[in-house]
Write a structure and sequence with these properties.
By secondary structure, the protein is of the alpha+beta class. It has 4 helices and 8 strands. The strands form 2 sheets. A 4-stranded antiparallel β-sheet has the order 1-2-3-4.
Length: 172
Amino acid sequence: MENKTISLKYPWGEEEFLTSNRIHYRLRMKEPAFRFLGYFLVLSVAYGLFIALAHGIYPVLAATLLFGIYWYVLRWRIQRGRLLRDFRKKAKAVREVQWIVDEDGFRGKPDDGSSEFSWDTIRKVVFSEEGFLLYQYPAIVFLPRKAFTSDEDLQWMRSISGSKVEKYVEVY
């Protein structure tokens, strides 16, 4: 792998904050525990329908349908509202974020200071169409796709992430 350095510069505002949280949310929903809960919910609705039609007991159907609407329709919207409220309380304005990425790690100015960390401290990298999530627990760093000045830089980041980090995932 070539020894390369890329510079990333992008605004950090509501859009980037929500995008990073949406990617993380979608990834969590694919975990076995959440999938199991979703499948259980579908079976519960089917069971509620059976009970309602066979025995005329409609509260079971109503309860499972309400929970189903919450699980599949309202949950992200509610969480999105909470995230936006928290973001607006903490963030004063859109700010510029800068990172220098190389074979050794990251250097940059993500907040009102500077930060530096090596690839060894990153536990997981998730690549999606919107960008990269770098899990450096407990923090998650989001590098939006628009921060990359060329497709070559983006491909290099995908390549080095796959080679330097044990858990590399691509989601679409």
